[in-house]
Amino acid sequence: MLRRNHCCDFLEREACILGVPRPSVRGRDNGEEDLSLCKGVYCPFCRGSVQRYVSSRKVRNQNRMAKLSEAVKNAIAGQEVFPVATSHRDGTPNVVYIKYLKVVDDETVLLADNYLSKTRDNILANGKIAFVVLDEEKGSFQVKGTARRLTEGPLFDHMRQWVPDRLPRVAAVVMQVEDVYNGADHLT
Question: What is the DSSP string of the chain?
């Protein structure tokens, strides 16, 4: 019983932090949003998985890709080294500096995997990735998305041409941009 209460408390806090509505006894016919189970959330109290309820509207928005504005692309082009964050499936964060990061298009960023270890493992485990870039006039931009690691194909070949031969150039990490923030303001 104690485990269930901890998970329920955690679920309530998690839903509240994310701004996600809690499930209701009333259904969609009463004018409320359609709520459904979306994905598991790691519970730090019992070290188990609990389910998070989210609205179908929220799930649909998660599949939408964000676009990088010209200001963000210019800030990326002007920065030499980027703090890049990933997280382990248990939630442990990892931040590294990456020099070889560039914009492919408005929704895609390319990173070079030269000496990544924990970052590589985190990308393979859950794919979530974020980096921050600083613009002298507009402040900081935070770019969040999902990454996949490629060891062949056109983007991998492009990375091998772009990164100097003296580096290992093990893989290309392709990030699909999902959210962009300027400070606390959500841009897309």
Answer: -HHHHHHHHHHHHHHHHHTPPPP-SS-GGGTPPPEEEEEEEE-TTTSSEEEEEEEHHHHHHHTPPP---HHHHHHHHH-S-EEEEEE-TTS-EEEEEES-EEEEETTEEEEEESS-SHHHHHHHHT-EEEEEEEETTTEEEEEEEEEEEESSSHHHHHHHHHS-TTS---EEEEEEEEEEEETTEE--
